[in-house]
Write a structure and sequence with these properties.
Blueprint (H helix, E strand, L loop, with lengths): L13 H13 L3 H14 L4 H17 L3 H21 L4 H14 L5 H21 L4 H15 L3 H11 L7 H14 L4 H13 L3 H13 L7 H14 L2
Helix pairs in contact: 1-2, 2-3, 3-4, 3-5, 4-5, 5-6, 5-7, 6-7, 7-9, 7-10, 9-10, 10-11, 10-12, 11-12
Length: about 240
């Protein structure tokens, strides 16, 4: 976790380091951002928003990691910092949301057992973030993805999961649509909302609606770290809808 610490920054205050780290973060330079944020955390270890920033950088590094093992390692660190933030600030929606996003980002690379174990944690954290801030579009996005992922579990897999790990909670594609539509109302310029809504429509057999939603997302400019990957996924979906 201290891989990116920069001893030369010891003379700087936590606020100065955070400001420098934010500048690197804005350019998606996560390794450089962590060289500022991690020393700042040593000076101000009970700053929940700083811990949220650190968790985000490790999630960004996950996107660039070349293999599953590294992704899981980085995701585990992201979960660690986000959980610390949530514990320190139980009424901070960003801290609660960081937990949901960090678990959600790591879950696809875990075993089925761990995926099912993480599922209620993601839902609970996203719902708490929404309860604290109903206008948080990312919280609705995460909850929508949770509904979509659970709804996609086939009957056979659902039965096996129930036998092995206990019952899965109810979830429908309509639940996912509701969440993604809410996210779009709150922030229509965030392209992932449109593409995930399109993915859900495809699963429902609403191909025309799926095309329209995905194309809306693809038409928007990239503004976030994962936007290029999200657009690539959207293009693959469009091919399947031809």
């Amino acid at each position: 976790m201290l891989l990116f610490a920069n001893p030369a920054s010891a003379a700087e205050s936590a606020a100065e380091l955070i400001q420098k780290g934010d500048a690197f973060s804005a350019k998606f330079q996560s390794a450089d951002a962590l060289k500022c944020f991690l020393p700042a955390e040593k000076l101000d270890p009970k700053n929940p928003r700083l811990l949220v920033r650190i968790a985000q950088q490790y999630r960004h590094l996950m996107s660039d990691a070349p293999n599953r093992m590294e992704k899981v390692q980085l995701g585990t660190v992201a979960v660690f910092f986000s959980q610390r933030a949530a514990t320190l600030a139980p009424n901070d929606p960003e801290a609660q949301l960081a937990v949901a996003i960090s678990y959600g980002k790591m879950t696809p690379f875990l075993s089925s057992k761990d995926q099912f174990a993480n599922s209620p944690l993601i839902k609970a954290a996203a719902e708490k973030a929404i309860a604290l801030d109903p206008a948080n579009d990312l919280a609705w996005q995460v909850l929508g993805r949770w509904y979509l992922a659970v709804a996609e579990v086939s009957g056979i897999k659902r039965t096996l999961a129930k036998v092995a790990y206990g019952s899965l909670p109810p979830a429908t594609y309509a639940d996912a649509v509701r969440c993604f539509e809410k996210a779009i109302v709150l922030k229509p310029t965030r392209l992932m909302h449109h593409i995930e809504l399109g993915r859900t429509y495809k699963q429902m057999g609403r191909d025309d609606d799926a095309r329209k939603s995905i194309m809306r997302g693809l038409a928007l400019p990239n503004t976030e770290k994962d936007d290029p990957e999200t657009k690539a996924s959207g293009r693959e979906l469009l091919k399947k809808l031809q």
